[in-house]
Amino acid sequence: MRKLITPLLSGLLLLPALLPLSAQAVDGSDIMQKGGANPAAMPCITCHGTDGKGMAAAGFPRLAGLPEAYIAKQLADFKAGRRENAVMQPIAQSLTPEEVAAVAKAYAELPKVNIKPGPVERPQPGSGAWIALRGAWERNIPECTLCHGPAGVGVGDTFPPLAGQSALYIENQLKAWRGTKAVAATRKTKAVAAVPPSRRNDPNGLMAHIAVDLSEAEIKAVSDYFAGLGESKEAFDESQHRLR
After folding, report:
1. Engineered SS bond to 116: which of 91, 128, 160, 232, CB 3.0-4.6 Å?
2. What are the distances in angstroms from CA 139 to CA 74, 102, 123?
3. Strand, coil or helix: what is 199?
């Protein structure tokens, strides 16, 4: 009997390693630090930092504290090509559905950004604060906070926080939604071909409509404004979704 039981126990101990990934518990934190089962799915911390706050200088976004459903959707959009990025597309395509769900949950459980109070005085017309708080309704551009919440804290699973993201990342996303318009040749310059938007995953084309009507200066100004709102060292009150 002992001779029969010993091999059986040994087989049971090896069973988890033999099970397919979908049948095993997937650790999102492990994926963040070591990558997915597919070697092409690199560790998330390579670009997004060990704390999930991103790398501002390189334009890699903060993921810590973003809604779980939002992160999962972005990975699905990268995989489907609705969002184009040379770094993220192959990574998203290499993650299993279980890994996507696990890593989205792990990042959502990290601390949310603490928002610094915005300017109290009336913003200057045309400034980044003006566009963020009042928009440019004469061009049918609503204020950013209408969808992204007061001080850009984010609303639900669809509209992510803008405060706490780097200016470079926000600027790059607005340009990704806008694409580049064709420019005719002149005596001094060559013709520039139109580049279609590389991001097409916004609800009802809302961001594409807004981005295409913003000037380069406005894009930079509003990006700088939201980047300047995070991150406060004060405690975050989850019940009020604001600083205490």
Report:
1. 232
2. 29, 41, 19
3. strand
140: Cβ contacts below 8 Å, ≥ 6 apart: 209, 213
Domain that holds residue 73: 25-108
CA 163, distance to chain mean position in Å, is 12
The SS3 assignment for 175 reads helix
Q: Which of 108, 136, 166 is the last residue of a domain?
A: 108
Extract the tokens encoding 156.
Answer: 């639900």
Rounded CA separation 174/221 (Å): 12
Could you check whether the bond before residue 231 is cis, i.e. omega within 30 degrees of 0? Answer: yes
Considering 48, 76, 108, which residue would you say is the last residue of a domain? Answer: 108
Contact 208, 178 (CB under 8 A): yes
User: What are the pLDDT digits (tens) for 4-25?
Assistant: 455 544 554 554 455 444 446 8
Distance CA 218, CA 210 (A): 11
Give the Cα-Cα-Cα angle 68, 158, 121 (nearest 5 degrees): 110
Domain match, 134 and 211 both: yes
| Digit-coded pLDDT (tens) for 146-169 | 999 999 999 999 999 999 999 999
- Per the structure, how many domains does the chain have? 2
